[in-house]
Amino acid sequence: VKDLLSTMTVTDKVGEMTQLGIDMILVGEPYNVTEPQKIDTAKLRKVLLDLRVGSILNVAAHRYPLEQWHDFIGTIQDMAMNEKPTGIPVLYGIDAIHGTNYTAAATLFPQQIAQAAARNPELTKEIARITAYETRASAIPWTFSPMLDIGRDPRWPRIWEGFGEDVYLTSRLGEACIEGYQGEDLSDPFRVAACMKHFIGYSTPRTGKDRVPAYIPRRQLLEYHVPSFQ
Asked: Which of 41, 66, 96, 204 is least surrounded by Cβ atoms within 10 Å, i.e. has the fewest?
């Protein structure tokens, strides 16, 4: 890693820390891609070779069949590893938040709020294990899950995405979910990297709306919002 970093320019490093949606490299315009979807080689070349972007995420408009994932990811990684100056592969991420929901014919499970109602860490762990298997089968190594924000404000529109209002339950189910995704062996080809989200204190915005400022007393922050991420 030190040897690789020593050869990287500022452009390389900034690029590696940049993440773009897949619609930025598809034929058509962002949020209005051409169907059937295809990778625009010129756009991909600009993103990977000129801008040195290190991460791409999600889908454009709808889920993809397994074969299309393999085609897209294979094309991206082939250019990244063989033509990009650093040779660093792209870190691809997906919102596989209740099963591999962006892959056609994948297994879907209840959202986290419904899993919490079962109060069963082993069940949540098994759901995550199956999700990891099917996500990795789609050639994607990273899921943006679990959501560990505490649902303390009923106005907040993303409560369904988390394990609810209870700090202890969210902590235990979050732990089980991560163990199911990642397993014990980092080299396991059937597991994926987990991503705890969104961030501490995100779930109690001042107005109740998503993505607006939050004003949280320090004691409440430490008592309610930090433990699940710890």
From this structure: 41
Give the span between the Cα atoms of 159 and 68, in whole angstroms.
32
**Nearest alpha-carbon partner for 32 in 57, 58, 59, 60:** 60
220, two tokens: 């409440």
CA-atom Rg of the chain in angstroms: 19
Which stretches does DSSP call E strand in the chain? 19-21, 28-29, 32-33, 55-57, 91-94, 142-143
Please, where are the H alpha helices in the chain? 2-7, 10-16, 41-45, 66-82, 112-118, 121-137, 167-182, 218-220, 226-229
Residue identified by tokens 């501490």 is 200
Provide the residue count of the chain: 230
What is the pLDDT, as a whole number, of residue 186?
84
Q: Give the ranges where 23-103 is alpha helix by DSSP (H).
A: 41-45, 66-82
CA distance readout (Å), 152 to 47, 92, 158: 40, 32, 11
Predicted confidence (pLDDT) per residue in 94-109, tens digit: 999 999 999 999 999 9
